Amino acid sequence: xxxxxxxxxxxxxxxxxxxxxxxxxxxxxxxxxxxxxxxxxxxxxxxxxxxxxxxxxxxxxxxxxxxxxxxxxxxxxxxxxxxxxxxxxxxxxxxxxxxxxxxxxxxxxxxxxxxxxxxxxxxxxxxxxxxxxxxxxxxxxxxxxxxxxxxxxxxxxxxxxxxxxxxxxxxxxxxxxxxxxxxxx
Length: 185
Ligand code: HEC
Known about the structure:
The chain is of the alpha+beta class.
């Protein structure tokens, strides 16, 4: 793909393989979007600390994701049962998988990625979901509200008045990457 220019930064990846199968397209899209978002966060933390990064993420996470989906010609997003951005609200299929993973985690089973072929309005799609787990560094913006830096909390309050994405602990299921690829006959 072409390098993406975001807020004056160039985010880039090696070119994908030629015409891979739907499973490989979905899995590599998740891997690559994950890398891009990590780069974005890492660069912004260096530039502006957590306060700068929280602003930058709120301005760029959706743009990067949408541009990436367009380039790869598939649907890809991040979703969560406790979403920060209402655009990341899961559909019924995604919500069901996230709930299954949460139930499994309670029983001591780590969530595992999942591929499934579904038919919608006579068209076949591969659906792929990969869990996203909370790590220590995520807590600066997704941890318990009272532990967030005041500057971060102010940005969140202003931009996400109905934010559900705080109160996590390291190891919690945060959400998922989710992909839909049409399977052409
Ligand atoms: C600097 C603050 C910051 C840090 C650190 C951070 N996030 Fe976020 N996160 C945000 C913001 C802001 C959004 C909303 C972006 C948007 O509007 O699309 C978000 C959204 C998300 C979403 C999309 C679902 C939703 O709630 O809208 C996921 C998943 C997510 N973050 C996971 C993580 C994980 C995992 C980490 C640690 C590796 C992490 N975040 C670290 C600020 C942060």
